Amino acid sequence: MLSSAEFARERYGYQMVTIPSRHKRATIHDVAVEAGVSRGTVSRVVNDEPYVSASARTAIEAAIEKVGYVPNNAARSLVMQRSEAVGFIVHEPHSLFLDDPNIGGILLGANTVLSHSDYQMVSLVIDSQRDTDRVARYLSGGFVDGVIIVSARREDPITQVIEKLRLPAAFVGHPPEQSPLPFVGIDNRASARAITKRLMQTGRKRIGMVAAALDRDSGADRLAGFTDALGDRFDPALVARVPLYTFTDGVRGMCALLEHDPLIDGVFAASDAVAAGALEALRHAGRSVPGDVGIVGFDDSSWALRTQPHLSTVHQPAFGLGERAAECVLGQLRGEEQPADGILLETPIIWRDSA
Amino acid sequence: MLSSAEFARERYGYQMVTIPSRHKRATIHDVAVEAGVSRGTVSRVVNDEPYVSASARTAIEAAIEKVGYVPNNAARSLVMQRSEAVGFIVHEPHSLFLDDPNIGGILLGANTVLSHSDYQMVSLVIDSQRDTDRVARYLSGGFVDGVIIVSARREDPITQVIEKLRLPAAFVGHPPEQSPLPFVGIDNRASARAITKRLMQTGRKRIGMVAAALDRDSGADRLAGFTDALGDRFDPALVARVPLYTFTDGVRGMCALLEHDPLIDGVFAASDAVAAGALEALRHAGRSVPGDVGIVGFDDSSWALRTQPHLSTVHQPAFGLGERAAECVLGQLRGEEQPADGILLETPIIWRDSA
DNA sequence: ACCTAGTCTGTGTACGTTCACAGAAAACCC
DNA sequence: GGGTTTTCTGTGAACGTACACAGACTAGGT
Q1: How does pLDDT run across A191-210, given as a tens digit for each residue?
Q2: Which of A89, A206, B235, B315 could be B300's S-S partner, Cβ–Cβ 3.0 to 4.6 Å?
Q3: Residue in B72, B108, B168 nearest the CB of A125
């Protein structure tokens, strides 16, 4: 079959120009002419303002329908100095982005709130230095009125751009240190302490932890909470440190713990994915769960119900975090005062079968 | 600790105005004045055009640095009639969005290609009628130069808007029928046929399928491929139909199959999540895999390595689909001719332990 | 008939850029 | 030195909208 360009050459003997003929869009002026009124009146109808006669209104509405008019956002945001859009910045390498059980929920929560206020969410994934520059330009360019940031890095150039522009923002998780920007998060330390205590109540004697992502606040706080809970009974040798919140690192961490102390009977895994990996390692080593070893996770993600047995874990309110972050940004946009010290959401402990 | 508003009241005795003082941004004109040249020359430097003297260039660069100038994208896209952004539309209910193993990969693939060409990706999640209207307005408003659409619906108003605006677009999966728009996808039918044949080669006698999402092309095609492969041996009674590509529906579908024919020894599950559910049901029924029953999935998602045993499955090149879709849109933006009949990507069969 | 208040409409300007054009200055060639 | 080309710079117009302002028309009261 011929492509349309080839067809045109065969049939009409000329080279078809393939520049996409971007439909020339109707402007407010076209509507005005069609309806026999002025730009101002059309503008009033479009923006639902008073002081328009019934006859003009109907004529304009008909004209809008006829010429297929849609307001040009670029022009509007140029003159209004705002874009009705909020950026959602995810600063994760691609592999983590796919695995992270929370980002999707946060994104949807934020999107729900924003779209309810007729704001558009623009999501920006940063994976390289090049991305950082591009996103920084994008933010500076006035395409968004505010920003929600997931998992910011320390000394993040993006954060600096935001502060410089005084762009309304909200962090999910902890903001970079000394940043005056508001955040929404959970108390990782208290949550880790609570679930570790609950695990201790099941009568376990030798409790260890697979600690992950210690270079982040969340990872470090979960380890701190674990340490808090054990108090005198804390044994640094029973902590396996792995770099990421992943299944594979869970397997590795659990293997290390078993090797160091085969009698271990309780494990706090830094995330559900880590816990799932730990379960795999235990199954391999022939230990039963929760019979021989009790294990608890963190996140209450989709992992928790996919494992056998189902995981006891800390519920992380991802959707709620997204909602609150969006509300925080919208509040700033409306000029409301925001709590400077951040918002912490509840993290109920979900007790299932793994401990 | 006092909030900044309270601090101001205490310290200076007045009520602080909390309207966020959006930093007045420097314009091209400010730079021109600072550097002692005209707007035009500054514009030439910013856009890297020739015919600028060395002295003017250095003066302007210093001025840009000094006043902190960043071009205003709204003004730029107004005059240039383009935004350097491409929309990524996901038309799924929230619950599916979180579970779908492919969307994340498609998104990252598209983002990689787009950002490499200095395009911005704007992702738009549609979950309700209200969202549809908002996104339609957004597209019409000229905020994006092109669109990538994942899982469009038939008679989709979004699709109609795109055709009306002649917006360069690419579908991932099948576009709505009779749509002239290009698409990138896989051959679900051929892939299903291939893996079913492979399953038959393992010597299974009674092969069934847990078919899901038959209201979509992908679901219907996978069932058709299964039917193709079995030929005369196809038994309609050995097909369990479930609504969604989910773990839970996999459990249900497998239970139905077992109830209908306890001697079943081979199963093609419409997706890996469905296969994982089927494994759960089989474990519950006391059947071993692959001993008693061989089972294969579809997608090669993260599920495939989380199950015990690991799944034999069809690899779906999610990242590649996203890349190709983005290339297709960028090609149209450059005015290149695109293949009208769509692009199908390879789907290698990954043979592991479940069959 | 006059004034006033309320309702409605059109016009000019601004938003911050790019681009075409015109002109100035420099460089080059006979 | 005069012409031609090349390099460089400034200016005015446009992009499509919102908003302030001025003016016209209507209605109601004296």
Answers
A1: 999 999 999 999 999 999 99
A2: B315
A3: B108
